[in-house]
């Protein structure tokens, strides 16, 4: 038995949106996922109420969405670490310590 076509379309649409959001995140773009928890919960409830015969495809698609979220989380953590490292370097520089590559100077070039 195949799942409800409207529900399958909704799940696959969300999956495509999340794949797009992942690509944007990798490019450093800002994405809004604030409504995602509610959407996921709603879809999960609908999938849960689907007859068992048609649930497999839907469950797999939901698992794919969660995997994409995990990838996004990793990408965000990577960006956070990069920014944190840059801030640490700036903090070191502003505390009077100069790095060998960029000594402090008040001269304008």
Our Rg estimate from Cα atoms comes to 22 Å
Outline type = rod-shaped
- DSSP, total strands: 0
Instruction: Give the helix tally.
Output: 3
Brief description of this entry?
By secondary structure, this protein is mainly α.
Fold topology:
Elements: H1 5-26, H2 36-48, H3 52-94
Can you put this structure into words, describing what you see?
With 109 residues, this protein is an all-alpha fold. The chain has helices at residues 5-26, 36-48, 52-94.
Task: Give the tags.
disordered C terminus, mainly alpha, 3 helices
